[in-house]
Design goal:
Elements lengths: L54 H11 L3 H13 L7 H12 L4 H13 L7 H13 L3 H13 L7 H13 L3 H13 L7 H13 L3 H13 L7 H13 L3 H13 L35
Helix pairs in contact: 1-2, 2-3, 3-4, 4-5, 5-6, 6-7, 7-8, 8-9, 9-10, 10-11, 11-12
């Protein structure tokens, strides 16, 4: 096994992929009026017992013992994964707590993940939301996206569609790809914000250009139907083709229909130029979209 630098890294490290809320409601949730149960108090971080590990781990551990939050977060990560030391998720949570309580945003996010997944601690979505929110307030785009998802579903906090939209927009403006797509979807469906197809198209295009296949499909649909923009079959073809090249079966189906009908492309099989528009009678046969996405 190659030996990495012993100096604690500033790169954000996570113990595992955070759970992502993928489905979106088509109706804005009603405000919650009943009192919420009081959350179980979180355990306070305690001074951990000295672990055993390789030379690199022990050097980082020494910095963590001195109070360096970056090193504390790194020690937590390595304990959570068993890198250079024996895996111990309970101690990982303890070290994440110590770093998070010093305001270390990556540790706050990772601690939220541990609570959300119930790793090294009893699963507690209220505590997960608390730590995600602290990291989000410091500008962590991943945490902002998680806060938005929890607000949208009412997990760990009362549902609040407007707050969900606001946090999604914050993450999107920081370049968080799935949030860029989500903003487009929320504008398209009028969830947390007034329905605005022009804004939906704008955000779908931003996400599509950065490689979001879902955004490419929804953008193609809007161009094909003329929703939020003048209908443009050639651009519908362009974006379905990009999504199809990524292996998406919905895009491949629609692209097959376009090839069969010859819509949005010349008969020699080459796509039209970016700005060249072709119109036809009837509707674009591109109605098969991803479930719960796109324009209704």
């Amino acid at each position: 096994e190659s030996k990495a630098s012993a100096t604690p890294r500033s790169t954000q490290r996570f113990p595992a992929e955070a759970p992502v809320i993928t489905s979106s409601p088509t109706v804005v949730p009603k405000p919650v009026t009943q009192m919420q149960p009081v959350a179980t108090p979180e355990p306070q971080a305690q001074k951990p017992a000295m672990p055993e590990g390789n030379e690199e781990f022990m050097e980082i551990y020494a910095h963590a013992e001195e109070g360096d939050p970056e090193a504390q977060s790194e020690v937590a990560f390595r304990l959570a994964k068993g890198v250079g030391t024996k895996k111990n998720e309970i101690e990982a949570v303890n070290w994440y707590h110590r770093a998070a309580e010093q305001g270390h945003a990556p540790a706050q996010f990772s601690l939220g993940v541990m609570y959300a997944k119930g790793r090294g601690v009893e699963q507690d979505f209220r505590s997960a939301f608390k730590w995600y929110l602290k990291a989000a307030a410091q500008g962590d785009a991943n945490a902002q996206a998680m806060v938005a998802g929890l607000y949208l579903k009412g997990v760990g906090t009362p549902p609040d569609a407007k707050a969900a939209f606001d946090w999604t927009l914050r993450a999107a403006k920081r370049g968080h790809l799935s949030s860029m797509f989500k903003v487009g979807e929320m504008f398209a469906q009028g969830v947390g914000a007034q329905q605005n197809l022009e804004e939906a198209l704008r955000w779908y295009k931003k996400a599509a250009e950065k490689g979001s296949v879902d955004a490419q499909i929804n953008l193609a649909f809007m161009y094909g139907k003329g929703q939020g923009v003048e209908r443009d079959d050639s651009l519908a073809f362009k974006w379905y083709r990009k999504a199809a090249e990524s292996g998406n079966p919905f895009a491949q189906f629609n692209l097959g229909v376009i090839y069969a009908k010859g819509r949005g492309m010349p008969q020699d099989g080459k796509p039209d130029g970016e700005g060249h528009k072709k119109t036809h009678e009837g509707t674009m046969p591109c109605d098969r979209r991803l479930p719960s996405t796109g324009v209704r």
